[in-house]
């Protein structure tokens, strides 16, 4: 019989020991958690990616009458970012405690929260609830919130209609009520190769890529200068950057191909589609005509890799008031990083971010979470449980 962890620290250690880097499968972790839940009487629902190599996990702890509609979602992602090229002082997937910190990939982002939730499942089950509690653990959050969509679709199809969601991203156990969208793109520029002494016979893909990149930078510089603005954000305007670029084969060949990737992150009040349309119009109306005047088969492909909406939860929402009351924190916090919270909100579930650890430790070598943060998270979730028991949500 499997002996499962019993406390937040041991649960976090166990979860970190599964290498769930986004390029890999998360099924070993998911099946371990599903087996644990089954051992305490809960059936997990799994939704898989197309290749059946990754899965989301959803489990509902019913209210005292056995109902699973409404209630509160506790949400976290199971994937982590790579450790490639990072200089760690210890094995990132063999977590260890040094002093008052637990080190390992994902301790902070965000297996500490998931581990604390799982450690409290027996307590959740033994408490008569007036509202159900749902566990939602996703895949591929780190590469654009790609996995959670199928889980949300299943939730909506079943008519569960939760009244609120807490996403346990690292926020030092302080409530965050808004974050930006994230929109990532790949652009493929197809020109025509020629000898570099005969530039008029070719169409330079790198140079046309550069024109697009400069236009994109000019656009984001204009937004930085003129807004819109929201001073509650740590970066109070929409941002963008070009992240990677590849092209060309030799110094004496006009490059026929160039590929680059870029992203932009909008305030919740600014439409990502509006920026997309400006970029596409520049390609269609300016760049392609110039390229095709040189080479009729030239072209540019703008491919949306991922898009996750922003989140902006109103103060009057019950979930906002609950988290503020339980943390005794009324400060307005809005963050530049994206989470799955925006997707929950767009699915009709008001959402607040509140989880253990500091975002400053996420994605870095020697990632850690302070043990006191896990203890604070445990106390917070027990307070959430009491609120569910007394139906304060």
Features:
393 residues; alpha+beta; six-stranded mixed sheet; four-stranded antiparallel sheet
Topology record:
Layout: H1 8-16, H2 27-39, E1 45-48, E2 55-61, E3 72-77, E4 96-98, E5 101-103, H3 107-119, H4 121-126, E6 133-138, H5 148-157, E7 164-167, E8 178-179, E9 182-190, E10 194-195, H6 205-226, E11 239-247, E12 253-254, E13 257-265, H7 272-294, E14 299-308, E15 311-312, H8 318-327, E16 334-335, H9 341-346, E17 351-353, E18 368-370, H10 371-389
Helix pairs in contact: 1-3, 3-10, 6-7, 8-10
Short description, anyone?
The protein has 393 residues and is α+β, with helices and mostly antiparallel strands. The protein has helices at residues 8-16, 27-39, 107-119, 121-126, 148-157, 205-226, 272-294, 318-327, 341-346, 371-389, and strands spanning 45-48, 55-61, 72-77, 96-98, 101-103, 133-138, 164-167, 178-179, 182-190, 194-195, 239-247, 253-254, 257-265, 299-308, 311-312, 334-335, 351-353, 368-370.
